[in-house]
């Protein structure tokens, strides 16, 4: 007899393309029926059939404190009682902008003076690019293969052949001339970036890079890579957009940039983008930079950007409450929980004789079915990705919900306590054996 998830998926496909509102949710790469979630609390999610799972998706990152943290929910409830949306400035926006600028400091650097709030990570990166083009008066953008920055046209470009080739559209509906404004370079090799700059340097507005890539699996940048990008870009009069939508406020109070600066790699990107944790589970994202760059945005400057729901008071309340609760102890807990699950994952796969790597970048980690951690997208794609399907479903049967794609990071939260971590460790050996088959 079909369960409630199956009924809902069948119905959803009649009224929603593919049955989902964001493609990865459809379980396309793992097969089976997506779980339609009815509620979430702490480390758990509950599906429409009433089954509870330990969750390692965390809404794809935002739930740093665990789902529905009571103080965050209360802050949203209180904000809701005062009105859902004003389309006018609010005091909370000022507090949130200031908090972001204060948190993103490290090694004596304070690279953010001003912050613009938007609603999604896609909007944040899209705006950052327009701003970089407005500031430099140049058109071309350098991005790395396998880095994801949201779904705006120019960022869905796919690498053509050859390092310095102008990109091809990565999706139907993206005009070739727009994709051709993006140069797609394999990740991780500064010499390739130098080669691109030596050919096109005077036309490049910016390099955009994930602070630590986590959308082709997790790939920790080599020490000095991000700093090297800043050096190359600046010497050609271009900017660097450090995309911290996923890493920002998740891996460290000052993002992956803060983690790197703390580890001794001192560099200053020009524009930061944030999303996910900054909204605490509500639609909110941001970009931030020094005043001279940010003041080019409308109405202060000529680069247009706007949004009916930008700085929405419920989102701002959730973001403020989340960041205020995200103390160093929270990061220590998440770091420890991530290390424990990553170790248990590696142990289970080793015991089952499965070639694997568990690459880590701060408290982010992922699973790769290859003997060594990939350094770029081509290597990430070369793994035995088919092993993830049985692995994923075995975990689901054991009551642990993983990201439904091998190319996604696993997300821990501060609500994953000892008992929950132990249950994950207990579930892993069976899944590892399933992956070995
Ligand atoms: N940038 C990065 C690094 C991301 O991981 C994502 C989403 O996963 C985005 C941008 C786009 O954010 P959103 O999905 O909120 O549009």
UniProtKB/TrEMBL annotation:
Compartments reported by the entry: Cytoplasm
GO cellular component: cytoplasm
Keywords on record: Cytoplasm, Isomerase, Porphyrin biosynthesis, Pyridoxal phosphate
Pfam families linked: Aminotran_3
Residue numbers carrying N6-(pyridoxal phosphate)lysine: 276
InterPro entries: 4pyrrol_synth_GluAld_NH2Trfase, Aminotrans_3, PyrdxlP-dep_Trfase, PyrdxlP-dep_Trfase_major, PyrdxlP-dep_Trfase_small
Main location: cytoplasm
Catalytic reaction(s) noted: (S)-4-amino-5-oxopentanoate = 5-aminolevulinate
Record CDD domains: OAT_like
Cofactor entry: pyridoxal 5'-phosphate
UniProt cross-references to SUPFAM superfamilies, sorted A to Z: PLP-dependent transferases
Gene Ontology biological-process entries: protoporphyrinogen IX biosynthetic process
EC number: 5.4.3.8
Pathway given in the UniProt record: Porphyrin-containing compound metabolism; protoporphyrin-IX biosynthesis; 5-aminolevulinate from L-glutamyl-tRNA(Glu): step 2/2
Keyword Cytoplasm: yes
GO molecular function per UniProt: glutamate-1-semialdehyde 2,1-aminomutase activity; pyridoxal phosphate binding; transaminase activity
Family: Belongs to the class-III pyridoxal-phosphate-dependent aminotransferase family. HemL subfamily.
Subunit structure: Homodimer.
NCBIfam families (alphabetical): hemL (TIGR00713), PRK00062.1 (NF000818)
Record-given protein name: Glutamate-1-semialdehyde 2,1-aminomutase
Protein's organism: Microbacterium album
Lineage, opening ranks: Bacteria, Bacillati, Actinomycetota, Actinomycetes, Micrococcales
Name of the gene encoding the protein in the UniProt record: hemL
